[in-house]
Amino acid sequence: MIRIAIFASGSGSNAENIANYFSDNPSVDVSLILTNNPSAFVIERAKNLGIKSLVFQKDNFLKNDDILHFLVKNDIELIVLAGFLLKIPENLIKSFPNKIINIHPALLPRYGGKGMYGDKVHESVINAKESESGITIHYVNEHYDEGEIIFQAKCNIEPTDTPGDLAGKIHALEYEHFPKEIEKLLR
Prior knowledge:
CATH architecture of the largest domain: 3-Layer(aba) Sandwich
Number of helices: 7
Number of domains: 2
Shape: globular
Order of helices and strands: EHEHEHHEHEHEEH
Structural class: alpha/beta
Strand content: 15-25%
Radius of gyration: 16 Å
Largest sheet: 7 strands, mixed
Low-confidence stretches: none
Mean pLDDT: 97
Helix content: 25-40%
CATH superfamily of the largest domain: Formyl transferase, N-terminal domain
């Protein structure tokens, strides 16, 4: 059985979608949900899904091996970032080479990098009057949003679309494609 840990910092809707997608798969187990945000709704989602969760301090994550040891102790084989806002420290990247993936709400390499997440991305795309946007699933390396691209999906942007409209289109792409792409990687 392949054991997955999901890292999230907010609502956790992608984490829940992934967990539900794999709930009937006997060879994949979403084993852990980890967050740096003690008030994140993802904690409640984990509880409702019966998935073990861990809230950790940012300093523990960035400056020591506590989280690495926790993941190893729980036999984690793949780390999935689903709305996780902290940069992944080098100790995790080295210990999980090409075993950490992220989803970004734009077509990288555009609209990526430090500080580019969520509504900030959608506002930037709309303000630039782009005709399309989408999602990028990529491996995580030591630089924000610069890891090798695994998959992209696109959506059209209408001239009347607001950042909120675009966010809805992006969420639909995330829910449709993220679990399927994780499944492909695990084969």
